[in-house]
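TA notes, week 10

Several of you asked for a full example with nothing omitted. So below is the full record: C-alpha cells for the whole chain, then the designed sequence directly under it. When grading your own attempts, check the secondary structure regions first.
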C-alpha cells in the first residue's frame, strides 16, 4: 500500500509531462496560418486539377511541408521564389543569394517528400 502511495505523484508528474509534450508537438505542427495553408492548397489545386482528390492530396502536401520546415523558413523560401521572378537588380539579388537558394532548396525538398507521401 505504501508503494502505491509513493508512485501516485510520479505517475501524475509523468502524465502532465506527456500531455505538455503532446500539446507542444501539436502547436509546432500547426504553426502555419490558415491563410498560408489555403493559399498553398489553392495553388497546388491549380497545378494538379480541381477535383476532390486534388483537395485531399494538396491538403496532405501542405501538412507534410509544415511538418518538415518551420513557417518562418517557408515564408523565406516563398519570398525568394517570388522575388527571383522580378527582372533587374532586385531579382538578381534573390536568384544569387546563398540564403535564398538554401531556403528554396529546403522548400523543394519538403515538397518532393510531400509528393512521395501524398500523390
Amino acid at each position: 500500500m505504501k508503494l502505491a502511495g509513493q508512485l501516485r505523484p510520479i505517475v501524475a508528474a509523468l502524465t502532465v509531462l506527456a500531455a505538455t509534450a503532446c500539446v507542444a508537438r501539436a502547436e509546432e505542427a500547426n504553426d502555419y496560418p490558415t491563410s498560408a495553408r489555403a493559399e498553398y492548397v489553392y495553388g497546388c489545386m491549380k497545378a494538379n486539377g480541381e477535383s476532390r482528390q486534388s483537395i485531399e492530396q494538396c491538403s496532405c502536401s501542405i501538412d507534410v511541408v509544415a511538418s518538415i520546415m518551420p513557417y518562418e523558413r517557408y515564408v523565406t523560401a516563398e519570398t525568394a521564389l517570388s522575388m527571383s521572378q522580378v527582372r533587374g537588380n532586385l531579382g538578381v539579388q534573390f536568384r544569387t543569394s546563398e540564403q535564398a537558394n538554401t531556403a528554396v532548396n529546403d522548400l523543394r525538398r519538403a515538397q518532393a517528400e510531400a509528393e512521395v507521401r501524398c500523390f
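The chain has six helices and no strands. Use that as a sanity check on your answer.
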